[in-house]
Write a structure and sequence with these properties.
The protein has about 325 residues and is an alpha+beta fold. The chain contains 9 helices and 13 strands. It has a 7-stranded mixed β-sheet. A hairpin with a 5-residue loop joins strand 12 and strand 13. Helix 2 packs parallel to helix 3, helix 4 packs across helix 5 and helix 4 crosses helix 8. The longest helix is centred in the N-terminal third of the chain and has 18 residues. The chain is globular, with a radius of gyration of 20 Å. The protein starts with a helix and ends in a 14-residue tail after the last strand. The relative contact order is 0.16.
Length: about 325
Amino acid sequence: MPGEFDLISKYFARPTPSAVLGPGDDCALVQPTPGKQLAVTTDMLVAGTHFLPDTDPKNLGWKALAVNISDLAAMGAQPRWVTLAGALPAVDEAWIAAFAEGFFACAAEYGVDVIGGDTTKGPLNVCVTAIGEVEPGRALRRDGAQAGDQIWVSGRPGLASLGLAHLQNKVKLPEPWPRLCVGALEKPRPRVALGLALNGIASSAIDVSDGLLADLGHIAERSGCAAAVKLVQLPHLPKGESYDADLRRIALECQLTGGDDYELCFTAPGTQSLAIAKIAAQLELPLWCIGEMVTGPTGDVTVFDPDGKPVDFGRKGYDHFGQAT
């Protein structure tokens, strides 16, 4: 059976052309682009909490990196380098090979070098640190929204949460939902190009990982204002032949309070709406204006029905140490 360093050498030691020194020493050495600031993020994925134990390891490898790159996208940063640490309950070379294939496929897709990491024996979990670059003063932050700014979201939040509900047999999805939703759950697409395009346009941004309402609430809290979301302006989820009332209700809950989509939610002055429409066309990515930032209790997010009445969903998103947020 191969040892720790044999596994690293066989599956995770790859060329790192953008690094001064890659894996193999006590530290990696990198040279930031002159005049750029570094954006650094870390995310951990734990079996049974962030992914099902029988998840395809190739998809898990992709997702482990994608969720970190999504954080860089939300800051308007260009991804550059990542480190990978993980605990494995046992050496399963077929599993490791598939995981590495998915991980490095994502790295190649987004142009990042894997410059180091660590591995140990223990309950299955994966921890990635991603480093990107951004122009000084140009990072997209959560604290820049102002009352009157429009609220936007990319793609179709809710698909990943519906995919998880489908895999857990909590809901039966008609075609073509299973493929779309499980695909969104297991292989998210970080919106790096969108984050870069929003520099100088968006006033704040966040990626949707814990639920649209919860993550929008973080923007509202950091920005010292409140948010108003209109149901009639939410993205349309795909419809199947059995799109009944129960499925519409579950889909709406997933859209607003489900997580794991890694779409970008951002705010911008209304004067930027044309620029945002051009970005949507250039990227061939739907961008939806779903409401506006308003004066009110700091951090408050209210959803309004077509008649302008508030709708209470009981929860806003996922909280690792609580039942709901």
